[in-house]
Structures are given as structure tokens and as C-alpha cells.
Design a protein that fits this description.
374 residues; mainly beta; 12-stranded antiparallel beta barrel; two-stranded antiparallel sheet; 3 helices; 17 strands
Length: 374
């Protein structure tokens, strides 16, 4: 089967579809923000002799281990001359195993082959996946870094290019040498010290009372796409290096039910820029192109779970919509990325040497940093 994919396809971005208006998300954002301010003002008039409410229970002297199943992998779609190419990796569910202690977490992701739909086969081809990440969350600051690598994709809508192709019988058009590498990061600050991000992220805290916080953040990611192949029949290929930076303002809230059950929700809106450096390899020459465009982004997340001192479990849905102009022809592109994860974890007492070494590192740090790490 001949490969119908043009070399220009590497200008693709994650799944491109028509994005709904942002107004519903903005209304939700304003509603949550107004509610938080009203609660804050109401608290000022309370009896000053009343004992302070405890909002957070720390379990950061305990190691938390979390295993999740997720759909956090990239798919790509692009329309070229009214023809749509839907490119996907041979993955149904990814897995991530993470460890958290005090203010720091780290984890790694992989593709478990025992899950149906994750097996390398002759129909969708082979896909290699690897990822790892870390995050640091203190009383107010949060820092996250993630790295992901995917090699091997296939054309999901192969039937649009081969009328004789039969799903389940014939193999898809495969792109075994297509490679995607991404490094993502974000830095954020939460204003309300009573709101616990650790309770829904690293699980080194438990939110005891319902609470929310305004959170400004800066996200940045660098990713590369390369479709160069060892196949001698390939006459051209492309390599693209992309950099995004977006400043956002958001609000997150956790509803606590009977101290151990919770529902969390958040929404962020922001703007920034997207820069791409594109290399097109032709048989007789190489073409270089660069452009920068504005990007607007909305992000929503909602989750629910159970969080006790020893055991925790739950689920989370995340969605991100971006709007930007592609290349210099002012073509407006809307993109959406949605992922879902379910997780479960367990906490156990940290060994004494780990607590000792952590205390030593903290003790030699300057006093301002010690206070931040509390």
C-alpha cells in the first residue's frame, strides 16, 4: 500500500477540531472566584476567639505510591487541501507509577502490553513509549517538569485513502519512523495557604475542609516532530522544533465530603506565543522556515476520589483548548487535548535514613528556603 502522507504533515499540532466558545468556561471561572471572595469576607466577621479551622492534614512523613491508567498520549490531525490525516500511536492506555515524599514527587510512564489494544501487531504497527517527570509543591509554589518520547504511528483513517481497505482485515498505513519528543514544564503560585494542591496531586496531604484558591501560572513546552525514515523510497521529510509559552490565571476548588471523599474542579485561561522552526529535506536542497504566532488557551480539570491516611483512589478528567494562527498565512487553528486517568495508591512509613537525609538537606538550606519547604 503506497503512503499517501505528504512531507508537509509535520506542521501538524495535537488533535485539531473546531473549538467551542470560551464563554461557558469564563462564566464558571467568575462564579467560583466570586464565591471564594464572598467566603473570605464572611470569615473576617467571625468571632476572633474561635479556634482556627484545620484545613489540611499533612502526611508528608509517609511515602505515597500511586499507579494510574491514563490516556495522556499525543494524537495528531491535519487537513491539507481538504484532506484530513488522523495519525495515532498504537496505544489504548498508558500507565504511570509515581512516588512522593514531603514536597517532591517523581514518576515514570510506560505502555503495558497486557492491556488490550496496547500490543504491537501487524495491523497498527509498533509504538515505543517512555516518559518520566517530577514536581515540587511547597506551601505556595509548585514546579512541574515532564519528558515524553513516542516513536511509531499509524494512519487511523486509512480507509479514506484506500477504498478497498477493510477494517479488522487489512493493516493500517504505518509510520514506524515518525518520532515525537516533548519536554513540558509549569510554574505556579497558590494564594490561599489553606488550599492543598498536594491532596489532589502528590497525595502527601489530605484536604479536611472545602477550600479553593486563585492560581497564576506559567507553562512552557518544547517538542520535536521528525518523519525521516530509513526507507529509500522516501523522497522528502520534515523536522520541526516547536516552543510554546503561556501565562494563565485560574481558580481551583476542592469540595470535601465527610473528610475523606472529595470532588475537585478548576479552570484556567491564558495567552502566550507559539514558535516553530521547520526544516524540509528535499532530494536536492533543504528549506528552512520560522514563524511565531499568538496562542490563547483554556484548561479545565475535574476529579473525584477517596483520600485516607493509608489508602487513596480516584479519577480525573483534563481538557485543554488552544487557538492560534498557523504559519504566515493567518490560517486560524483550534486544537483540543483531552485526557482521562484513574489511580490508586498506598502510603507507608518512610525509612529513618530518608527522613534524616531530607532533614539534613533542609537544615543546610538558607532560612527563606526552609520556610518555603515547610
Amino acid at each position: 500500500m503506497s503512503n499517501p502522507i505528504p512531507h508537509a504533515l509535520l506542521t501538524t499540532k495535537p488533535i485539531s477540531i473546531k473549538m467551542p466558545q470560551f464563554r461557558h468556561t469564563l462564566i464558571l471561572f467568575l462564579f467560583l472566584l466570586a464565591g471564594n471572595q464572598a467566603n473570605a469576607q464572611g470569615g473576617k466577621g467571625s468571632d476572633s476567639l474561635k479556634q482556627p479551622v484545620k484545613y489540611i492534614a499533612k502526611v508528608d512523613t509517609i511515602i505515597s505510591i500511586k499507579l494510574n491508567l491514563n490516556t495522556e498520549f499525543e494524537q495528531f490531525s491535519q487537513t491539507v487541501n481538504d484532506v484530513t490525516y488522523d495519525i495515532r500511536p498504537n496505544i489504548t492506555l498508558g500507565t504511570k507509577l509515581s512516588f512522593s515524599y514531603r514536597f517532591i514527587s517523581f514518576g515514570f510512564g510506560f505502555k503495558p502490553k497486557f492491556i488490550p489494544g496496547n500490543n504491537d501487531n501487524d495491523m497498527q504497527g509498533k509504538t515505543k513509549v517512555f516518559g518520566f517527570g517530577t514536581n515540587i509543591i511547597t506551601s505556595h509554589w509548585m514546579q512541574e517538569l515532564q519528558f515524553n518520547y513516542i516513536k511509531g504511528f499509524y494512519l487511523y483513517n486509512t480507509g479514506d485513502f484506500d477504498p478497498d481497505w477493510e477494517e479488522g482485515t487489512d493493516p493500517y498505513i504505518q509510520l514506524p519512523d515518525n518520532r515525537y519528543v516533548v519536554l513540558r514544564g509549569s510554574t505556579g503560585y497558590k494564594f490561599n495557604e489553606n488550599y492543598s494542591l498536594k491532596s489532589i496531586s502528590s497525595k502527601t496531604e489530605i484536604q479536611l475542609k472545602s477550600c479553593g484558591s486563585l492560581i497564576p501560572s506559567l507553562s512552557y513546552d518544547y517538542y520535536e516532530l521528525d518523519n525521516k525514515s530509513d526507507d529509500p523510497s522516501q523522497s522528502s521529510s520534515q523536522f520541526s522544533a516547536n516552543f510554546n509559552m503561556v501565562a494563565s490565571l485560574g481558580y481551583m476548588y476542592t469540595f470535601v465530603i465527610k473528610s475523606k471523599f472529595y470532588v475537585s474542579a478548576g479552570v484556567f485561561g491564558g495567552a502566550g506565543f507559539h514558535h516553530i522552526s521547520l526544516l524540509t529535506r528535499m532530494p536536492t536542497e533543504e528549506l528552512h522556515d520560522k514563524y511565531t504566532s499568538a496562542v490563547f488557551r483554556m484548561q479545565e480539570r475535574i476529579g473525584a476520589g477517596y483520600n485516607s491516611r493509608k489508602f487513596f483512589a480516584g479519577a480525573e478528567l483534563y481538557s485543554s483548548q488552544s487557538s492560534y494562527s498557523e504559519s504566515n498565512n493567518a490560517v486560524q487553528v483550534s486544537a483540543i487535548r483531552t485526557s482521562f486517568q484513574i489511580f490508586a495508591g498506598y502510603r507507608f512509613n518512610a525509612p529513618k535514613f530518608l527522613k534524616h537525609e531530607t532533614d539534613v538537606v533542609k537544615g543546610i538550606a538558607p532560612v527563606p528556603i526552609q520556610n518555603i519547604l515547610e
